[in-house]
Amino acid sequence: MKPKHMSITANVTEEQLRAMPAGKLEKLRNTIWNIVEAYEAASASSKQASTATAYKLDEMQAKGIAMKIMAEINRRKAEAAGAAGI
Questions:
Q1: Residue 85: what are its φ and ψ, rounded to 5°?
Q2: Within the chain, how many helices (H) and strands (E) appear?
Q3: Is a pLDDT exceeding 80 seen at residue 10?
Q4: What is the pLDDT of residues 46-63, one digit of tens each?
Q5: DSSP 85
Q6: pLDDT, tens digit, for every residue of 16-44?
Q7: In 1-86, where do the E strands start and end?
Q8: Using CA atoms, how far apart are residues 8 and 41, in angstroms rounded to an integer?
Q9: 52 and 39 in contact (C-beta within 8 Å)?
Q10: Superkingdom of the source (predicted)?
């Protein structure tokens, strides 16, 4: 089953990420990486160049969101390490 194309406006703000509890943020990270993998597979298996390109763009957009999530997770880890005096 091919994934639906991502809305061009799909995004997440830093404020939204900072407001999320750690468990929900981890779950979101896992979900977005599953989405990235689905878009990679759809792009690779698509026979039409235009469809493959569309999935590749969706993949890149999902990776951008994933990087924001990872940045927030890493920020929290650094903050916790700083508070612990590490």
A1: 80, 25
A2: 3, 0
A3: no
A4: 999 999 999 999 999 999
A5: T
A6: 999 999 999 999 999 999 999 999 999 99
A7: none
A8: 20
A9: no
A10: Bacteria
